[in-house]
């Protein structure tokens, strides 16, 4: 029956998941594992956020508001008067956007190495994925190369700050790309709160820009899968037509709306990440500059898989970057965890 599976998924390994903490603990006989592989926020949600989610759970017998109005109104209070769409994680927003604008066989352009789900989602909808490698030593984007590849594409993906390299893209570079684009640019800003960049003003000047955001990182709601995007007004009704009905559940929407009000908590999380990120970059040979809540590290002459196994045996779970096309086999990615996790990692990576 395997013949029924589409060729793109017979040939592709799909999304790469990091090892599970329970598996690492069992394999190495460790009580606690430092979870530094998935770019999560080490702090749990606040009590107010938890209570908001629990209150919404009492009405879980009813379908959620199809437009997640409580969450969208909270976004407008937080960001200002923009147009927003939502999804089950940013992944859901990506899938819906592709479904909205891309016909089977059309090109979708992706700046690589980067988050693999852009390509996976595009292939799932029958699109032809065109990769544009970041050839520069610092993994920055060449706007001319990128724009040239986008000539006949309806949709292109650019991650800033980029996963897994950690570097962001200057505002003027994104503006230059937008000027040369006839299609849409999806700018993935999952980690932007950990940088000094603000791409939102570009929405006022460019009708072909979509900015994706998530509540998974600085807002500590990875388990609730809440994604959203700034969209131009012309696109909003068509996105909503293509969207999966009731994609964002009522518990997630209620919790996310409260999380957006906790400015002090967000500030503390950002300061924690910036402090430890600076230490990682200064103290670890091979660490690359980063504007995100993680750091990519060149572990050569060891391979990434060797480094991951060594660190796992020490109770530290990090991500091998071998699944990111164009990076080779000698990079790992480590998230900023809590103080104890970060200290364990620094001790183990020095020994490595």
Please provide a written account of the structure.
The protein contains 13 helices and twelve strands. The strands form three sheets. The protein has a seven-stranded mixed beta sheet, sandwiched between helices. α6 (117-124) links the parallel β3 and β4 (128-133). It has 352 residues and is of the alpha/beta class. It has helices at 7-11, 21-28, 47-57, 69-79, 89-101, 117-124, 143-149, 171-179, 236-242, 250-259, 263-283, 304-313, 339-351, and strands at 34-35, 84-88, 107-112, 128-133, 155-159, 184-188, 209-214, 226-230, 294-298, 316-317, 319-320, 331-335. It starts with 6 loop residues before the first helix and ends with a helix. It has two domains: 2-43 and 263-351, Aspartate Aminotransferase, domain 1 (Alpha-Beta Complex), CATH 3.90.1150; 47-259, Aspartate Aminotransferase, domain 2 (3-Layer(aba) Sandwich), CATH 3.40.640.
Structural features:
single chain, 352 residues, alpha/beta, Aspartate Aminotransferase, domain 2, 2 domains, seven-stranded mixed beta sheet, three-stranded antiparallel beta sheet
What percent of the residues sit in helical stretches (DSSP H or I)?
25-40%
CATH level 3 topology of the largest domain:
Aspartate Aminotransferase, domain 2
Mean pLDDT: 94
Q: Count structural domains.
A: 2
Query: How many extended strands?
Result: 12
Rg estimate, integer Å: 20 Å
The CATH class of the largest domain turns out to be: Alpha Beta
């Amino acid at each position: 029956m395997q013949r029924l599976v589409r060729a793109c998924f017979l040939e592709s390994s799909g999304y790469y998941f990091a090892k599970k903490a329970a598996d690492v603990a069992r394999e190495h006989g460790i009580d606690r594992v430092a979870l530094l592989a998935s770019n999560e926020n080490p702090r749990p949600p606040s009590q107010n956020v938890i209570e908001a989610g629990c209150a919404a759970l009492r009405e879980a017998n009813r379908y959620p508001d199809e437009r997640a109005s409580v969450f969208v109104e909270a976004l407008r209070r937080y960001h200002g008067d923009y147009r927003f769409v939502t999804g089950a994680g940013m992944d859901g927003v990506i899938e819906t956007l592709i479904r909205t604008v891309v016909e089977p066989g059309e090109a979708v352009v992706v700046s690589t190495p980067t988050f693999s789900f852009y390509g996976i989602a595009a292939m799932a909808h029958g699109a032809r994925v065109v990769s544009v490698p970041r050839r520069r030593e610092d993994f920055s984007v060449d706007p001319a190369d990128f724009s040239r590849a986008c000539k006949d594409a309806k949709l292109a993906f650019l991650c800033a700050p980029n996963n897994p390299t950690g570097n962001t893209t200057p505002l003027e570079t994104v503006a230059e790309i937008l000027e040369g684009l006839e299609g849409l640019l999806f700018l993935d800003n999952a980690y932007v709160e950990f940088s000094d960049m603000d791409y939102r003003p570009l929405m006022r000047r460019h009708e072909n820009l979509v900015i994706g955001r998530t509540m998974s990182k600085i807002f500590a709601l990875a388990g609730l899968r809440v994604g959203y995007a700034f969209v131009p007004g012309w696109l909003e009704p068509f996105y909503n037509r293509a969207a999966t009905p009731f994609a964002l559940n009522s518990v997630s929407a209620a919790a996310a709306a409260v999380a957006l009000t906790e400015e002090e908590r967000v500030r503390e999380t950002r300061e924690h990440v910036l402090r430890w990120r600076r230490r990682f970059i200064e103290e670890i040979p091979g660490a690359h500059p980063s504007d995100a809540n993680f750091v990519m590290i060149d572990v050569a002459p060891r391979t990434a898989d060797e480094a991951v196994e060594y660190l796992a045996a020490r109770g530290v779970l990090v991500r091998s970057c071998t699944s990111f096309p164009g990076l080779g086999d000698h990079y790992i990615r480590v998230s900023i965890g809590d103080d104890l996790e970060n200290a364990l990692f620094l001790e183990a990576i020095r020994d490595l």
